[in-house]
Amino acid sequence: MLHDPPKTGKPEGPTKSTRLQTGALLIIAFAVVLFLLVQARFVLISLATAIILFSLTSDVINAIARQRIGPFRIPSTLASIAAMVTITAALLVLTSILLAQVNTVLITTLSYADRAPSAVGSLFAFLGEDSQLAVSNALRSVDVSSYLRGAASQASGIMQATVLIILFVGFLFAERIWFQTKLLSLSGDEAQAERIGKIIQSIIHRVNYYLLVKTVISAITGGMVYVLARAFELELATSIGIITFVLNFIPNIGSIVATALIALVAHVEIGDAGITLAVFTIAGVIQFVNGSVIDPMLMGRALRLSSFGIILSLAFWGAVWGIPGMFLSVPIMVMMMVVCSYVPNLRPFAVLLSREGLPETEKMLDQPIDRDLFGQGLNRD
Question: Does residue 62 sit within a domain?
Fold first, then answer.
């Protein structure tokens, strides 16, 4: 009996049908994940915020636990309880301040509802009387009260989110002491568990450094805008300063919105185009110096994020989670870039997300991280 000779050629690659099936499965998986992100947005946003707050305090807890009072060392449990109490108090105070300012803005906006259309319409006077009248009529047709009621209902959910965030942070603190043990059990290898722990520490360091610098810059910017508003005797000076501080956490877009907001308030309150232009110019200079000069100088290369990638992340998470997603877009992008840097199959994505196309390398995990606030020695390469 004759037998066919064994085939010695190269194994056939994936067929066209297989590639189509794989592509279809990826599209379906993305659609399912996107659906879950949208449907569970309230819980997921609260969880993401809680994780960021927990990571911010983990280094502080370790520093407190290393301190000694005479011959006694401060227990890690006591340090965790102190951190939890501090976070709870800070969140409740900040939420109360934010709700109070929201109420102030809503009440003041109602009082401006009648004169705002004419004031805004006057900005288009250079286009002719017809254009000015058309803009004024269009603004008068807007039902401001319905929008304000919607904003008030959304603001009422802030306290619910705060309570949920506090609960999440509490459970994270409770699980903190077992994290390394769980990591070892999941990986099954001590070296792999140590490597994963270093990757997590790299993520925590970069996110913490970004939030620390951003908080300092935003506070300075908000304070300067508050002084500017007080100098021109604007009624909403305090609210504008707080809103500017908050909006500066939204990359790129936040500073533009904050600048336009103070100019709009100045024009509605004062009604003088020259003063409005002066306020807009000064606020723009403040935002430019703090956001485009001082901010990058302090950040250095600590984040290594692509500007285009930041815009894409901002657009995606803004579309999925709304305004909270815009605040969380950069921390999420930092996490994705670091994770992709250490997964060989995903490293091309890290190259695209990084600013110079030079994401972290494996050698960086074994090098110590300098935590200087002003960016000295942050590069581990």
Answer: yes
Contact indicator for 299, 375 with CB cutoff of 8 Å: yes
Please tell me the pTM assigned to this model.
0.76
Q: Angle CA(373)–CA(288)–CA(121) in degrees, nearest 5? A: 140
Q: Does residue 108 belong to any structural domain of this protein?
A: yes
Q: Is 119 part of a structural domain of the chain?
A: yes
Helix (H), strand (E) counts: the chain? 15, 2
DSSP 305: B
Measured between alpha carbons, how far is 41 from 24 in angstroms, rounded to an integer?
Answer: 25
**CA distances to 182, 186, 273 from 196, in Å:** 12, 11, 58
Instruction: Classify residue 204 by burial, with Cβ atoms within 10 Å: 0-12, 13-18, 19+.
Output: buried
Number of domains in the chain: 1
156 phi, psi to nearest 5 deg:
-65, -25
Q: Is the pLDDT of residue 114 over 50?
A: yes
Q: What pLDDT, on a 0 to 100 scale, did the predictor assign at position 4?
A: 54
Q: In whole angstroms, what is the distance from residue 329 CA to residue 312 CA?
A: 9
Number of Cβ within a 10 Å radius of residue 40? 11
Task: Tell me 177's DSSP state.
Answer: G
**Residue 97: domain span:** 40-188
Backbone angles phi, psi at 22, to 5 degrees: -65, -45
b/e map of 137-164 (b: 16 or more CB within 10 Å)? Answer: eebeeeebeeebeeeeeebeeeeebbeb
